[in-house]
Specification:
Layout lengths: L1 H14 L2 H19 L4 H15 L4 H26 L8 H12 L3 H35 L3 H14 L8 H15 L2 E2 L6 E2 L13 H22 L16 H23 L4 H20 L10 H17 L1 H7 L5 H12 L8 H4 L1 H22 L3 H5 L6 H20 L2 H19 L5 H23 L11 H28 L5
Antiparallel strand pairs: 1-2
Keywords: Membrane, Transmembrane, Transmembrane helix
InterPro entries: DUF112_TM
Pfam family, one: TctA
Length: 507
């Protein structure tokens, strides 16, 4: 314990230097802006700043602090347009739209923004404390996850998906199947076969996640707004009378925030899992947990716990992804992979010896994560009213603004007009799916997990030349299979038990 205190003291000495504090503040602000703009995302934001940091001759620890602040700031910023406009700023914010946007439409935009800022802070704080106390231990745990364990983890996530199916499981399963089908589009990485590309070169790399999400959420939402406007239905949002959440709402969501932050952190430690998976799994589990206990839960219609769970999870995951990078030299996410590239410019190789060979860099980074989080919290909450004023923009100006923001994000991916047309087509399909009552969250989860699931299954089977026993050989895989069965069977058995006990004649 004394060693940790001594090391974190060294880290704060580095992080509190005037230059590093300034860099952390600038990075936090830029990251928030990057997170707000759909399509940019933390990977692009960090990648764009690397040449600038190198050209300014920043010391390696200062450059890493700048990039880390941008990364964490982007996770904060992604929630803003998700809540206000139903346009996810980045992939990890998709789940935030499910309850954040309904809250904003109910006149609780200020509450949703401030509460989600707190949840982001709590999730990131949990992740940073996790790095501080458990980094070497969790690095060994993450190494136990091979392709087979990752595949079973995805199975577990899909079992958790049953909570998102709602009252119409057939439509929910159809939605998940559409998502899985979308994830298979493009060139097969193993065989080189073109799958469902219809001889269109732009589909060779598959459908970009941002294009799918912008189409499903932003474009279909715009079509609904236009439909309501044309039919004379008001799309005005009630004015929020409160600036931020109250103590009762904080207590109401505290357990969900902590649970999801811890879950997101552990998923973030797994290389390649990412904040998108963390937020989806955390939301699904929180929905299952709360709906089993609380008959008044209204996930998908503006439940505060459905807002805080994905935000805490994606920030906990983003921070947790630093563990494999720092301790093993294995990037925990796409963004940390880019940051490893930045370290290579300084001839620094992350790995097991980094804590001993360059302690000021490692502990300075960890300490700066604490500082950047506090900055982001105090940067976001006072600006709640500024952000929420977007809801007061008249529809004749708001609709074109959403179109411009969404299309800029889509076009920035490949600078191709094809992506714009594809987003519109997906938006029209999403609009009709909404009209038919098909839930969209299973579709999103299918897109997020489908590719990961296929890749890991293929890798696992290639190890054993196609033998399936590898999928349940390790203790980790067995534990995940048991958890998957339990997460489906226990609620079903519990409902049957309650139904039987309520039948007339039963005590």
């Amino acid at each position: 314990m004394s060693g940790i205190i001594e090391n974190i003291g060294l880290g704060f000495d580095v992080a509190f230097s005037p230059l590093n504090v300034l860099v952390a503040a600038v990075g936090a602000f830029l990251g928030t802006v990057v997170g707000v703009l759909p399509g940019l995302g933390p990977i692009n934001g960090v990648a764009m700043l690397i040449p600038i940091a190198f050209a300014m001759n920043l010391p390696p620890e200062t450059a890493l602090i700048l990039l880390a602040a941008v990364y964490v700031g982007a996770e904060y910023g992604g929630r803003i347009t998700s809540i206000l406009l139903n346009v996810p700023g980045e992939a990890a914010s998709v789940m935030t739209t499910l309850d954040g946007y309904p809250l904003a439409r109910q006149g609780l935009g200020n509450v949703a923004l401030s509460l989600s800022a707190w949840a982001s802070f709590a999730g990131s704080l949990i992740g940073t404390l996790g790095i501080l106390f458990f980094a070497p231990l969790l690095a060994d745990w993450a190494l136990a996850f091979g392709p087979a364990e990752y595949f079973v983890l995805m199975i577990f996530a899909f079992c958790a998906l049953t909570t998102l199916l709602g009252d119409q499981p057939v439509k929910g399963l159809l939605s998940a199947a559409i998502g899985l089908a979308i994830s298979t589009v493009g060139v097969d990485a193993n065989s080189g076969v073109y799958r469902y590309t219809f001889d269109i070169p732009n589909l060779a790399d598959g459908m970009a996640f941002v294009v799918v999400i912008i189409g499903l959420f932003a474009i279909s939402e715009l079509l609904e707004m236009l439909e309501k406007s044309a039919s004379g239905v008001s799309i005005e949002v009630p004015k929020s009378t409160r600036k931020m959440f109250n103590a009762k709402e904080w207590v109401y969501t505290l357990a969900s925030t902590i649970r999801s932050g811890v879950m997101g952190f552990f998923i973030g430690v797994l290389p390649g899992a990412g904040a998108s998976v963390a937020s989806a799994v955390a939301y699904a589990n929180e929905k299952r947990h709360c709906e089993g206990k609380d008959p008044n839960a209204k996930f998908g219609q503006g439940d505060l716990r459905g807002l805080t769970a994905p935000e805490a999870a994606n920030n906990g995951s983003a921070t947790g992804s630093f563990i494999p990078m720092l301790t093993l030299g294995v990037p925990g996410s796409g963004t940390t992979a880019v940051m490893m590239g930045a370290l290579s410019l300084y001839n620094i190789t992350p790995g097991p010896v980094l804590f001993d060979s360059n302690p000021s860099l490692v502990w300075g980074l960890i300490a700066s994560l604490f500082i950047a989080n506090v900055m982001l919290l105090f940067m976001n909450i006072p600006m709640v009213r500024v952000f929420a004023s977007m809801l007061r923009i008249p529809p004749w100006l708001l609709v074109p603004a959403i179109v411009v923001i969404s299309f800029v994000g889509v076009y920035a991916l490949h600078s191709a007009t094809f992506d714009l047309g594809l987003a519109i087509a997906i938006g029209v399909v999403g609009y009709f799916l909404r009209k038919m009552g098909v839930p969209l969250p299973p579709l999103v989860l299918g897109v997020v997990l489908g590719n990961l699931m296929e890749q890991n299954l293929r890798r696992a089977l290639s190890i054993t030349n196609g033998e399936l026993f590898i999928l349940w050989e390790s203790n980790m895989a067995k534990g995940l299979w048991i958890a998957s069965v339990l997460i489906v069977a226990v609620p079903w058995l519990y409902r049957r038990f309650r139904t039987r006990t309520k039948m007339p004649g039963n005590p």
